[in-house]
Design a protein that fits this description.
elongated, 16 strands, single chain, Penicillin binding protein transpeptidase fold, five-stranded antiparallel beta sheet, Beta-lactamase, 4 domains, alpha+beta
Length: 683
């Protein structure tokens, strides 16, 4: 009886154990399923690691970089040679494509080896575990960190393909010396892109992450080569290379560079600063993303033009002079800023005189005034009197007496074309007051000026401050036939995966009349044309002998500012020179700096470019008329000088010049008299 009872008890216990085991297994399955569903609901972990942001010039060269002191350049797995991937897998995790984040067999082997050695002599981390550690964790060796590492490992395996994990791993592992990822390592150690690595180079690099402080060839080439040999044998064992290939790679002589590329820009530091500012203000990108987001910033900079600009400023301004300079060049069609200099020495003064300084533009403002006049019915032949004048006002404004340079005046009427070429101040102020003192300030706003214009009589002579970049933009609009552009420093921005996240806006809005723009452009060529000499020489006379093509331009000066601005249809540039604190420019040599910098830059920058693309071509509604430069009337054979002048059709002068008819008749009589025989002249 007791035996039966005992047997029953045993069966009850067994049934209870079975039921509990089934319940436990079910609970474990539910927990595992819940954990898996939770992992899937959480989705892929954000792979946000600091990466270097690179800045590219228009020719693809790197002009700058921002980072946290660690070089990281993300490359896709397709850009990495197969022997590099195979080397990593062979030495780090041979079963990578077959496990689910953890290699149980390696873990068991590592545990046994560590127990036997009574210490940690062998690790068992998979590539996925190492990637999780690189992405999310510190290097502290605690159980809590190990648990979190395991969690991230599962999360990575559950949400990413194996190739995605391998790509992330080879882009984040440390190779020492501040190089993180295979591209940074390849550039640092061998001075080449990862895609160009040989088997010997790849196998050596694959051995470095085990201990960069030990296996870096710059720390110990002997240990690096020993580790390389181990990598090659592992590759041979896995069958990805032959014994002969391993031996050849082992024997290959390697040259180590030991230098990171893309340091602080050697050229265009002012441009580089402006781009970083534009990334925040125009592209709306967060400052941390700019610094560490692995962006690819494609700028408008033309390195050849930038080098010319820096050289010209350096060789033109005397080393002993305290004069500063601001310079910018632009493609008028696109608004792309191709060169920019904010000062003579960035290290001494990073203040950008091309984009930040506000200085009086002097007579470079006059083309804007004369465009407004053209809109109001003026033409290049419109006559106004140039003479000492005091302007008096009925509205309480103080009397105003402008002066021409050196107090020279025509003391007669001159044309608008000649007034612009000679930079006559009386003509400009008369035009300004005739149009209304708000007209020029409105025109400045229309052409993108960001500084406020004071609506006073002297505004026509450039007494309200402007920025170099704003004046350049206005001249570019005139140059391109009146289409709206804005200064563009950034063409586009890509994130670390190549997705375009910003692109410069393109506008083809017509803000000026094409015909009037061309008429003004041609008027602006007059400063270099001696046919327009009058009571004074044209203002560009000092640089005419340096010109090899036709330019439109305008110079300007105040006591403390010297400007030169001008363009061809395909290139515009502006130069300002002066003292930072407004000290008066007194030396003749210093007064000529701006013009000389401008013409030397334009000539060198355009030297190898097609002349046709930079020639002025009139639109169909414009007509060329031979005009007497002195009176603006249609020239005849009697006129000693004529200049082809452009007018919008219907506004050209109808009246012929008669000022020289009597002289022509007298000259003809003299010629006839000379042709007579001597006796005919006597008798």
């Amino acid at each position: 009886m007791e035996t039966v009872t005992g047997t029953k008890r045993k069966w009850r216990a067994l049934r209870m154990i079975s039921v509990l085991s089934i319940l436990a297994a079910g609970a474990a399955a539910v927990l595992l399923l819940s954990f898996w569903l939770w992992i899937k609901i959480l989705g892929p972990p954000p792979l946000s690691i600091p990466q270097s942001t690179l800045y590219y010039a228009s020719d693809g060269s790197v002009i700058g970089e921002s980072n946290s002191g660690e070089k990281r350049y993300w490359v896709s797995l397709n850009e990495v040679p197969s022997h590099m991937k195979e080397a990593i897998i062979a030495i780090e995790d041979r079963t990578f494509y077959h496990h689910y984040g953890f290699d149980i067999k390696r873990i068991g082997g590592a545990v046994a080896a560590n127990i036997k050695a009574m210490g940690k002599v062998q690790g068992a981390s998979t590539i996925t575990q190492q990637y999780a550690r690189n992405l999310f964790l510190t290097l502290e060796k605690t159980w809590s960190r190990k648990i979190v590492e395991a969690f991230y490992t599962i999360r990575l395996e559950a949400n990413y393909e194996k190739d995605d994990i391998l790509e992330g791993y080879i882009n984040t592992i440390s190779f020492g010396h501040g190089a993180h990822g295979i591209e940074a390592a390849s550039q640092f150690y061998f001075g080449k892109s990862a895609k160009d690595l040989s088997l010997a180079e790849a196998s050596l690099l694959a051995g470095v992450p085990k201990g960069p402080g030990i296996y870096s060839p710059l720390v110990s080439e002997e240990k690096a080569k020993s580790r390389q040999k181990l990598v090659l044998r592992a590759m041979e064992e896995t069958g990805v290379i032959s014994k002969a290939e391993a031996e050849a790679a082992e024997q290959e002589k390697l040259t180590f560079i030991g230098k990171h590329p893309h340091h602080q820009a050697e050229i265009a530091p002012y441009f580089y600063d402006t781009v970083k500012k534009e990334l925040k203000e125009k592209a709306g990108i967060d400052e941390r993303i700019i610094a560490l987001g692995g962006l690819r910033v494609y700028t408008s900079l033309d390195p050849a033009q930038q080098e010319i600009a820096e050289q010209v400023i350096s060789e033109t301004i005397s080393a002993s002079s305290g004069i500063q300079a601001g310079f910018a060049a632009m493609d008028p069609e696109t608004g792309y800023v191709t060169a920019l200099v904010g000062g003579r020495n960035y290290r001494e003064s990073p203040f950008n005189r091309a984009t930040q300084a506000v200085r009086q533009p002097g007579s470079t403002i006059k083309p804007l005034l004369y465009y407004a006049a053209l809109e109001q019915g003026f033409t290049p032949s419109t006559m106004l009197r140039s003479e000492p004048t005091t302007f008096r006002f009925d509205n309480g404004q103080a009397d105003y007496t402008p002066h021409n340079y050196n107090n020279q005046y025509a003391n007669e009427e001159i044309t608008m074309a000649q007034a612009l070429a000679l930079s006559d101040n009386i003509y400009a102020v008369k035009t300004h007051l005739f149009l209304g003192q708000d007209t020029l300030s409105d025109m400045a706003r229309r052409l993108g000026f960001t500084t406020k214009m004071k609506e006073v009589p002297s505004l026509a002579l450039g007494t309200s401050g402007v920025k170099v970049i704003d004046l350049l933009n206005a001249y570019s609009i005139i140059a391109n036939g009146g289409k709206k552009v804005e200064p563009v420093f950034i063409r586009r921005v890509e994130d670390s995966r190549g997705k375009v996240i910003y692109e410069s806006p393109k506008s083809r809005e017509q803000v000026l009349d094409p015909g009037l723009s061309f008429v003004l452009s041609h008027m602006m060529t007059g400063m270099f044309d001696k046919k327009l000499n009058g009571y004074a020489a044209v203002t560009g006379a000092s640089v005419i002998n340096q010109m090899s093509r036709e330019y439109a331009g305008k110079s300007g000066s105040t006591n403390s500012d010297s400007w030169m601005a001008g363009f061809t249809p395909k290139m515009a540039s502006v130069v300002w020179t002066g003292y930072d604190k407004g000290k008066e420019i007194t030396l003749t040599e210093e007064k000529l700096y701006a013009k000389n910098i401008w013409i030397r830059f334009m000539e060198r920058a355009l030297e190898k470019q097609d002349e046709k693309g930079h020639a002025f071509s009139p639109p169909s509604n414009v007509i060329a008329v031979p005009v007497d430069p002195a009176n603006g009337k249609k020239a005849t054979n009697s006129c000693p000088v004529f200049r082809l002048t452009y007018f919008v059709k219907g506004t050209e002068p109808k009246e012929f010049c008669t000022d020289h008819t009597h002289e022509h008749q007298k000259d003809s009589s003299d010629q006839k008299e000379k042709k007579k025989r001597w006796w005919q002249r006597i008798f």
